[in-house]
Design a protein that fits this description.
Subcellular location: Cell membrane
Number of strands: 0
CATH architecture: Up-down Bundle
Pfam families: Na_H_Exchanger (PF00999)
Structural class: mainly alpha
Strand content: under 5%
Order of helices and strands: HHHHHHHHHHHHHHHHH
Helix content: over 70%
Shape: globular
Oligomer: single chain
CATH class: Mainly Alpha
GO molecular function, one term: antiporter activity
Largest sheet: none
Keywords: Antiport, Cell membrane, Ion transport, Membrane, Transmembrane, Transmembrane helix, Transport
Number of helices: 17
Number of domains: 1
Protein name: Sodium:proton antiporter
Length: 401
């Protein structure tokens, strides 16, 4: 334990000291973190032995995602979102179901050994985008505001929407009682409704308490670092406890917090964003050391092809079609389609599916890990160059007008 703590502690310190320089290179944090875990893990130098099981990784990924969703939503520009709400509406209402359907169709061709329900489960696991991996894009001021906010809202809500779908498919594939609740439209609406209600109620109460403490000078600089972290995790955990979507609760709570806590927002969010980045670092180190290393030897041509198609055709074609008729240029639609990274939500879904012990579970796990790994690399390496291209094109359009 102490050897692992020494290695990880030194790595966190060194990366924290050079993070600004790394961000100016083609490398991103998740690339560095995953590569570090893989290089020092059991299949690499063997120096790092992180004793974390599947449920531990799931918990770490869930808490990281909840915190990132809350802070990203709190930083959203609601005035821009009010004008461009049709982008996330189309992405979620049309693009998401089309992505699952196309992923299923491609899976039927590439994985004839899997059952249809298993293929549908794979398509659903890989449909939601990752707010943490997409942070480099949605926080970059060079990206047009409508594109940025559209991607932010999409990544904030699509994982919560996919949970009931995944439970329904697991119920059909396994017949196990614990998954049957997911097989109803009522449960789908309930999960989303409870998530929104919890996020709004908890955040309203918290903001009232924060205003009271600020007015009386009760909150000190030391404790100012913790309220948003605690609030985000409380929204997530309470919604999960009540049978709702914790991810939607975190995102809804973050939107409300950003709208109501305007003056105190920046100072309160700063520590929460740092905590989210640290949790993300730990998640990707564990992913590299304990998951990628054990899986990479099982990659096959069909798995690699499906992973590439999942990041390109399966995502980009539905997005392009769903955005037809909106005042977006083709390059902006392609940009939105490309920046659909897969990561934390897919890890959580993958652990749920692995625990169900499906006959084709090994193939599903390998395809999932391969897609996430390629997403970390490809979306990370292309983020800065493609943002620069889109920004130049937007400036040219503005000059022409």
């Amino acid at each position: 334990m102490y050897a692992d703590l020494t290695i990880v502690g030194l790595f966190v310190f060194i990366y924290s000291a050079i993070a600004g320089g790394v961000e100016r290179t083609p490398l991103t944090g998740p690339i560095v973190f995953t590569a570090f875990g893989l290089a020092l893990g059991p299949v690499g130098l063997g120096w790092l032995h992180l004793g974390i099981d599947r449920e531990g990784l799931r918990t770490l990924a869930e808490l990281t995602l909840a915190l990132v969703l809350f802070t990203d939503a709190a930083n959203a520009n609601l005035s821009v979102l009010g004008k461009s709400w049709r982008i996330p509406e189309r992405l979620l209402g049309m693009g998401l179901p089309l992505t699952i359907l196309l992923g299923f169709a491609v899976g039927v061709l590439l994985f004839p050994e899997l059952g249809w329900f298993e293929i549908a489960i794979l398509a659903t696991m890989l449909a939601p985008t990752d707010a943490a991996l997409g942070k480099a894009v949605v926080t970059n001021a060079s990206v047009p505001p409508d594109v940025r906010e559209g991607l932010n809202v999409e990544s904030g809500l699509n994982d919560g929407i996919c949970v009931p779908i995944l439970l329904a498919l697991l119920a059909l594939a396994t017949g196990v009682e614990q998954y049957r609740l997911g097989f109803s439209l009522g449960y789908f609406a309930e999960a989303i409704g409870i998530g929104v209600a919890v996020g709004v109620a908890v955040t309203l109460t918290a903001i009232g308490l924060l205003r009271l403490s600020t007015r009386h000078g009760w909150i000190t600089e030391t404790w100012r670092q913790l309220p948003v972290v605690a609030l985000a995790l409380s929204c997530f955990a309470l919604a999960q406890l009540l049978g709702g979507s914790g991810f939607i609760a975190a995102f809804a709570g973050g939107l409300l917090f950003g709208a109501l806590a305007k003056q105190e927002k920046h100072a309160l969010l700063l520590a929460a964003e740092g905590t989210g980045d640290t949790l993300a670092l730990m998640t990707w180190v564990v992913f590299g050391a304990g998951v990628v290393g054990q899986t990479v030897g099982y990659f096959s041509w069909s798995v690699l092809l499906y992973a590439m198609l999942s990041l390109t055709l399966i995502r980009m074609l539905p997005v392009y079609l769903s955005l037809r008729g909106l005042p977006l240029r083709a390059n902006a639609k392609l940009f939105i389609g490309w920046f659909g990274p897969r990561g934390l939500a897919s890890i959580v879904f993958g652990i749920m599916v692995f625990s169900a012990d499906l006959p084709g579970g090994d193939t599903l796990s390998v395809a999932l890990v391969c897609t996430i790994l390629l997403s970390i690399l490809l979306h990370g390496l292309t983020a800065n160059p493609l943002v620069a291209l889109l920004a130049r094109a937007s400036r040219r359009d503005g000059e022409i007008r």
